[in-house]
Amino acid sequence: MLKINKSTAIDIFMIALGCAIYGLSLEIISVSNELADGGISGISLILRHFWNINMGLSTLVLNIPLIILGYRFMGKRLLTYTIWGTLCLSFFLWFWRSVPIIKQLDLEHDLFLSAISAGVLSGIGLGLVFRYNGTSGGTDIIARICQIKFGISSGKMLLFCDAVVLFASLSYLDLKHMMYTLLASFVLSRVMDTVQQGAYSARGLLIISNKYEQIGKMIDLKLDRGFTYFKALGGYKQDDKRVIYVVVSPREIATIKQLIRQEDPNAFVSIIEVHEALGEGFTYKQKRHHLLIRK
Length: 295
Prior knowledge:
Number of helices: 10
Number of strands: 4
Helix content: 55-70%
Mean pLDDT: 82
Distance between the termini: 49 Å
Number of domains: 2
Order of helices and strands: HHHHHHHHEHEEHE
Largest sheet: 4 strands, antiparallel
């Protein structure tokens, strides 16, 4: 049985919140503006359109055989979170349709606004689900099985499943609505990545210089940033080198480039994007020191 502690309780709550937001997006925007979706949600939209089957019920029923199929390929925690996410999404798809105060946003006069709104809201919801180690079931399970059993990447399998469902959605959507659905899917993926990986971006610098000690000292004094020395081997001369790795905020890039240039104009610098930075100076307060006095 899954042990319930503070971390697990937070995961469970945030997965439920994410499913609530995603379900709200499907119910008040996608359905009323005839936008499709991928995966099980897309199939539920097709069933609702042709046979008026409740999306919460169809989502639950379609996920049951997939969960049974994926049982042997999932760990206990992932399976539990998948079942929880499936139940939450099914519940909220039923709940939002049953609440009288929730009205569908008919944005038919502006499909561009509909696509952007659906993408942003769905991206926030699914981003929360994935950020807290959950899934909403459906094609996520198929992708997981294919990755383990056949070595097919989960991203490719998810794309294939979504493409099949979107193609089937052309049975009730015209090409115009399908194109706006693709726009919504693009926005969803970008927003989901931002929520899942963290909205705050930082920059990581790899600095190779013979004057690494002077550069490191100035980073410490001028920027008050911690840094790490890596041992490296030069490819041409096969000589030992030191590589400085430091993470800074985007606004500090100009300052650190100038600092490096002053110490060693010939230094090699590679700047990479860091999607999320945790620790001193980023997620809790940096220690401040006098510019010239170190303790």
